[in-house]
Amino acid sequence: MKLLRSLYLGNRFFLASGVIAACFIATFILGGYIVVPKVLFFIAGALVLTDLLLLYRTQKGMQGHRFTPEKLSNGDDNELRIYLENFYAFVVSVRVIDEIPHQFQRRDVSFYLQVQPGDNKTIRYYLRPVKRGEYSFGAVNVFVSSPLGLLLRRFTFSANKTVPVYPSYIQMRKYELLAISNRLTETGIKKIRRIGHNLEFELIKEYVSGDDFRTINWKATARKERLMVNHFQDERSQQVYSLIDKGRVMRMPFDGMSLLDYAINASLVISNIAIKRSDKAGILTFQDKVGTLVPASRTSNQMGRILEVLYNQKTAYRETDFSIVHNYIRRKITQRSLLLLYTNFESMYSLQRQLPYLQGLARLHLLVVIFFENTEMKNLIEQPAGDLREVYHKAIAEKFTLEKKQIVKELKKHGIQAVLTTPQQLTVATINKYLELKARGLI
To answer: What is the model's pTM?
Structure first.
């Protein structure tokens, strides 16, 4: 039974069977030459037995393993590898089918290759999850055929493995490395000119584009024969909280991911950047009630705590209650902090309902409201109208787009910082705003 479960018929087997059947039918109609299909039948039978012997004579003819990360990064391309090693004494043709988790809704993860005797191959492919949670992988099915190609033998490896999908730690590491090497400008992070700076001197460094020319150290410049500038320390140990709205306004999908997951990924990155710049990072989630609070800190295990909290966020996408958040923050966060509020407003009316609570937060803390452009509306506006219906659609889309810009002006009028960005540029826009506020000495 074990042999039968692993044995499959190849395309050449069906092709040979069809030819032999056609020969029998032809000799029945035409008469005579019955010996020809009989000879072909016995030859085919002998070849099938030979192929069976070739495939099953070696007990472990093919070994393999799927290498998956301990956790997958949400919204990023994660590399997976399948390792195969051929223990047969001949070249084998291999078809590999990987049973990936149902969340990907893909049934095309298959590969064709040939493996020389005693050789090994590594297959690399990428998966992009768009939701957090546990993903269950099935088996790696490897169908092996000999040079005869009449039969296939199936091998299975790495069955039933569960891998969690965490917020985008790949993005977090990317921006961390760029920040360490001072290459953030390569990803769109702006070089902010300082309006003022702390008087605490740190070091003298070579001038780079964007540095304040007023900080040039002329004595060091004369010694080094190139422009050198004084570098001053930023204010440190400031509290930076990411406030994540888990209400229904964050359910809207873009490129397969919800706005909530974009906000979670950006919160992870900005928390790491803040800690690297000696500030304290914290998290607060809410919808109709306050969910989770991670007090701001810069201890060694703070990023691990933030990562676990963001991974475990669940929501029913209920109506957001900003009054509860306002009262909670007044009680729990007593030190003046930078509050990065990730939410979404689609109309001026929705803003006016929450504006009194936002103003209350802005009086106690430095509040930055971060909300999203509707990229589908933007695409609709850019497309030429073909008929009267499309003209109306474009007019409505432009109305919504204009209202988003008016929301930004309304927030600024009440002394509230605002960032309007596309979901794809959320992380870069958030980091730019944080660096701008640090450079202006507002936190």
So the answer is: 0.82
